[in-house]
Amino acid sequence: MPTEKTALTPATHTVPPAKFSHGVKKGNILQVAGQVGFLPAVEGQAPTPAGPTLREQTLQTFANVKAILEEGGASWDDVMMMRVYLTDVDHFAEMNEIYNAYFEEQGLTQAPAARTTVYVGLPKGLLIEIDALAVLDN
Amino acid sequence: MPTEKTALTPATHTVPPAKFSHGVKKGNILQVAGQVGFLPAVEGQAPTPAGPTLREQTLQTFANVKAILEEGGASWDDVMMMRVYLTDVDHFAEMNEIYNAYFEEQGLTQAPAARTTVYVGLPKGLLIEIDALAVLDN
Amino acid sequence: MPTEKTALTPATHTVPPAKFSHGVKKGNILQVAGQVGFLPAVEGQAPTPAGPTLREQTLQTFANVKAILEEGGASWDDVMMMRVYLTDVDHFAEMNEIYNAYFEEQGLTQAPAARTTVYVGLPKGLLIEIDALAVLDN
Q1: For residues C120-135, average pLDDT
Q2: 3-class secondary structure, A18
Q3: In the prediction, which pLDDT does B124 show?
Q4: Which of B15, B113, C50, C135 is the most buried (most CB within 10 A)?
C-alpha cells in the first residue's frame, strides 16, 4: 500500500534552506532532523541561538523538537530515541539536570525515550544538537 | 490503535539516573540506548567499566546491549543497525576483530546488522559506546 | 508473523569484511550502513576513495547509498533520515551545495529526508560518511 512521506515544517521554523526536512512522517514513523537552539525564525534574519549558555540552547532545542513532533500529531510520549550531541564532555552533568527537569515538567505518561549522548564538533556558537525518532500509535 | 511504549530495564542495569530508558519497545520497534562497558550494577556503587582495554569494554558493551534486547524479547537477529562510537581511529581494526569473533560465536541465523562507526569524544576512561535499533517480527 | 531480515549487497560493493551488512531490510524498514566515498569494489584491490575532494567523495557516497536502497527495492523517496558525518565544520556550506544539487537532479516526488550533520573523526583520507533509514510502502 503506497504511503506518503510528508514534511513537517512548524510555523516556528524556516522552510529548510537545503533539500532536507525538519521532520518527516510516513505511516507511524516520525523522524525529527537534528535541531539546535535557534529561536523561532524571523523572516529576513539569520538563525539566532536562544543564547550562549547550555541551558538556553538546550531548552530551545527541546522546544524545536517538540514543535516538529506536534506538527506530526505526536508528543514526547511517542519518542523512542533521542540523540544528544554535545561539544564538551564537561557539559554532561548540566545537560542531564536540564533534561530531567524538562521531562519532569512535560508529564510523560509512558517510559522516557532511550538516549545516546556523544561529543562531536558543531558549528561555532552551538553547544547542543538533538534529533529524535518517534513511533506513533498505529 | 494505541500501543504502549515500555521501558526495558534488565536486572544487570541500574534504574536510569536520568529521564531516559536503557531501552524501549513499542509495537515491533525496539531501541537500545547508548551502552558502554559498565559491569552489572552494584547497589551503592558508581558504575565501573569492565576494564581499561578496548576488548574488555567492547565485550561488556555487547553484553549490555544483549541484556536489553532480551528484556524486550528480541535477539541479535532482530537488530537492524548498530552505531559504534569509538574514541580513536587506531582502534578500528581491533574493534572489528572483536566484533567479528563475538558475532561468530553468537550464531546469527539472519543477515548481520548494518553498522556505522564514527570517532567521537566519550567520558574519560570509556573507549566505546554502542546503540542499536531492532525490528521484531510482527 | 516471522519476518526475515535480509542483507542488501549491491554488485558495486564487496561482501562486507566484517560481520555487518551494507544494508538490511526487514518488513518495510530498510537501514543503510554508514557509506563512504569508495569507488565500486574491484576484486583483489583495497577500497579506494573516488578522490581527495569533498565533492568527489560526497557524490560517490550518495551513489553507494543509492545502490543499497535500490538493492532493497527502495528509492530516495523512501528515505526518512540521513546522517551526514563530516570531519570539518568548514565543509558544511559546500556539502549543502552538493547535497541540494544532487537531490534536485534525483527528482524527489515526496518530502526530502530529515537530516542530522555532525563533525566527527573518520579514517584518514575520508571526508564524509552517510547512513540512511528508509521506510518502504507497506
Answers
A1: 98
A2: coil
A3: 96
A4: B113
H or E element, residue B92: helix B92-106
Give all strands (DSSP E) within A1-138, no chain letters.
5-7, 23-26, 29-35, 79-86, 114-119, 128-135
**Rounded-to-10 torsion of CA C10, C114, A59, A82:** -30
Is residue B1 pLDDT above 70, yes or no?
A: no
Q: Are A26 and A5 in contact (CB under 8 A)?
A: yes
All three cell numbers of A91: 557539559
Distance CA A89, CA A96 (A): 12
Q: What domains, with CATH codes, occur in chain B?
A: 5-135 (3.30.1330.40)
AA letter at A95:
M
Tell me the pLDDT tens digit for each residue of A71-91: 999 999 999 999 999 999 999
Within 8 A by CB and 6+ apart from C120, the residues are A120, A121, B118, B119, B120, C85, C86, C87
Q: What pLDDT is stored for residue C14 in this prediction?
A: 85
pLDDT per position as a tens digit, B80-127? 999 999 999 999 999 999 999 999 999 999 999 999 999 999 999 999
Distance between B98 CA and the closest CA of chain C, angstroms: 10
pLDDT of residue A1: 62
Tell me whether residues C122 and B120 touch, CB distance under 8 A: no
Yes or no, beta carbons of C135 and A17 under 8 Å apart: no
Q: Please compute Rg for chain A using Cα positions.
A: 15
Alpha-carbon dihedral A35, C98, C32, A32, rounded to 10 degrees: 20
Q: Contact A128/A84 with Cβ under 8 angstroms? A: yes
Can you tell me the distance from the alpha carbon of A135 to that of A80, in angstroms, rounded to the nearest whole number?
7
Nearest alpha carbon to residue C82 among B48, A131, B26: A131
Taking CB atoms and an 8 Å cutoff, what residues of chain C touch A21?
111-115
> Given an 8 Å threshold on Cβ–Cβ distance, is A114 in contact with B131?
yes
- Test the A interface: residue of C83, C104, C116, C130 with most A CBs within 10 Å: C116
CA distance C81 to chain A (A): 7
